[in-house]
Design a protein that fits this description.
This protein has about 280 residues and is of the alpha/beta class. The chain has a domain of about 190 residues: Vaccinia Virus protein VP39 (Rossmann fold), CATH 3.40.50. It contains nine helices and seven strands; from the N terminus they run ααβαβαββαβααβααβ. The protein has a seven-stranded mixed beta sheet with strand order 3-2-1-4-5-7-6, sandwiched between helices. α3 links the parallel β1 and β2. The protein is globular and about 60 Å long. The N and C termini lie far apart (about 65 Å).
């Protein structure tokens, strides 16, 4: 049996047949794997005052099941979602029962007004975009002065004994040479879309904490924080696990060297602060 999707007159640039539909169907039937957005609120309260107003929060790349937007609305925030894949955006509007809360747009161009957001959330998005620099610049543009961007993304240095690396179903993928990664991206888009969970935009960028800081500074962000900087932000799990995490947080606060070592493993999440004008 010939499984070549390019047999006949199909153009190579069209990629795998019906990939967007396959992706929508796949993610609509899966439970979200990201952490609860409510876990971020205590950290955000330590960075900016959320009590003086009803903060506006944009969740970029909200996906077809935007639990994060729904949780923020339930918490009393004025939240909206931005989603580049049209099928995902339609599913997200149906999921919320409020299509007006979802806008079709990308991280590089959200279509939101300048300075309109108190907080921007970019969860598992930056690795998928065409331009990380333009995406961070757009986040900076739509944030109000004194606002905060929270993002988490891929970590090229993360160590997992089970080989977990995020999206690609290839053990230890984050440690592969860049040229090999490009081969898997090509195979996913054209021949085997299950490799990256049927994503129309598979993860193509891999970061470390220092690179995220560098990119943030280049677009104008002033200060940077890891979740290691917020005591209690990792207060989940058993008593021993909580104790070890608390010990690690205390150590990273006092030693730049220990902080650097810890960020090799936990450097995939960062808060970027925009200076007040």
């Amino acid at each position: 049996m010939n499984n070549d999707p390019y047999r006949g007159s199909r153009c190579l640039t069209e990629g795998y047949p019906d990939l967007e539909k396959l992706g929508v169907d796949h993610f609509k039937n899966q439970q979200p794997i990201h952490h609860s957005i409510r876990d971020l609120i205590p950290c955000l309260r330590k960075l900016i005052d959320l009590s003086a107003m009803r903060p506006t929060i944009a969740v970029i790349g909200c996906g077809p099941k935007p639990d994060s937007v729904r949780e923020l609305l339930d918490e009393g925030f004025d939240a909206c979602g931005i989603e580049p894949v049209v099928g995902f955006a339609q599913a997200a509007g149906e999921f919320l029962g409020d299509p007006a809360r979802i806008t079709v747009g990308g991280a590089e161009m959200t279509h939101l007004p300048t300075g309109s957001q108190s907080i921007v959330v970019l969860e598992s998005v930056l690795e998928h975009v065409d331009s990380p620099m333009l995406s961070l610049a757009e986040c900076y543009r739509i944030l109000a002065p004194g606002g905060v961007l929270f993002l988490n993304t891929t970590n090229r240095f993360k160590i997992s004994l089970r080989g977990e690396n995020g999206e690609f179903r290839i053990p230890f993928y984050n440690w592969f040479p860049a040229l090999v990664k490009e081969g898997y991206v090509f195979k996913h888009l054209h021949y085997a879309p299950h490799l990256a969970n049927y994503s129309v935009r598979p993860a193509v960028h891999w970061f470390c904490y220092t690179e995220l800081c560098r990119l943030g500074r280049e677009v104008g962000f002033a200060q940077f924080y890891s979740r290691l900087d917020f005591k209690g932000s990792y207060a989940t799990g058993g008593a021993l696990k909580r104790f070890l995490k608390a010990t690690l947080q205390n150590a990273t606060a006092k030693s730049p060297w220990i902080r650097a070592l810890a960020l090799l493993q936990y450097g995939d999440a960062i808060f970027m602060y925009k200076r007040p004008e």
